[in-house]
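Researcher: I'd like a structural prediction for the single chain below. Treat it as a standalone chain; there are no partners to consider.
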Amino acid sequence: MSNPYFFGYGSLVNLSTHAYHHPQPARLSGWRRAWVHTELREIAFLSAVPCAGSEIDGLIAAVPGADWDALDGREYAYDRLSAMGAVVHGLQPAPEISLYAVPRSAQIAGSKRHPILLSYLDVVVQGYDQVFGAAGVAAFFASTDGWEAPILNDRAAPIYPRHQQLQAAQQELVDQHLEMIGARVIVAG
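Model: Treating it as a single chain, here is the predicted structure.
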């Protein structure tokens, strides 16, 4: 029996945030990303949202021994769903693939009380830059909704538990894209 895989489309693209086996680029069809909030978390975070005709790039990686406990704990506000048939990848034979998504019924728009953490966004963009390059970062911003939620600039004292140090060029890349989409950045404090 082969190990199942997950499809990651946010912080799981950044290999510094996990140690799952055999990560490789993949593409999910019929979904977009969105910044959402639920009553289960204090901040806005990324979710996959069904959307016919859309595609998002991400990573797949193996969950050894089908031991989902640690990953389910990390993704506690999400439902784990089958992504079989929706993910294009290079593995043969095709493994079982799941993705995490917040149920639509639990989604609330981000707000000043529930902003997007810049330290979280930085981790996501760093991962996309490392795996897909600058074009992949641009595609991430273009295939993600919910940018009307404010971005809380917590870089000086990161709140996101898996924050990473960005290179100056990566930080500039994040800042340039936020400016291009007209995102509202607010200062922590």
